[in-house]
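Build the 3D complex.
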Amino acid sequence: QLQLQESGPGLLKPSETLSLTCTVSGGSVSSGGFYWDWIRQPPVKGLEWIGSISYSGSTYYNPSLKSRVTISVDTSTNHFSLKLNSVTAADTAVYYCARRRGRDYYYYMDVWGKGTTVTVSS
Amino acid sequence: DIQMTQSPSTLSASVGDRVTITCRASQRISVWLAWYQQKPGNAPNLLIYKASSLESGVPSRFSGSGSGTEFTLTISSLQPDDFATYYCQQYNTYPLTFGGGTKVEI
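Done.
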């Protein structure tokens, strides 16, 4: 059974870089036909899609964050990562990683990690 | 970006009630819509994909319908475990976008 686990620092100062890793177990990030995504949820708010990487390394980012975001995949360690530059208090959120499955151009999130809380504060 | 609007934002119901949540897209998205359930402190859980396909393991009291811009999630007989927040999400076009959520409470 596929499981995802987020990890990374829980507290950052403004202007620092957020770096999170999603470790995949029970499956492979290099499996064809899936996308690997990051989503966040600010406190007491809704869900915001950050971006995605395909098994082949193609990336898709939310334009609202695109200038600050990099998503990468490491097939040797079976994980994918998120970097978000120049964080502010507005980046405080629970960050989730997720797998998307589907076919053709249409993929939906079917497996989620438990989430990790990131707080940005001076 | 495609805006997803859910209504109502909060819904008060009782065990056994039939519950319907509506999701409207600002542009046509065919059937490329998913529904998720989220309980406090937990990650979202997939209920429905492709507007009306029930995810494996999800109880049959959950059902989805709609296409184009109007979609609904129905719970035929609300159970105690169903009190949660529900989100719709379109995956027709990047950026992927979510509705604001509907909290189902007693």
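Residues 21 and 81 of chain A are 4 Å apart (CA to CA).
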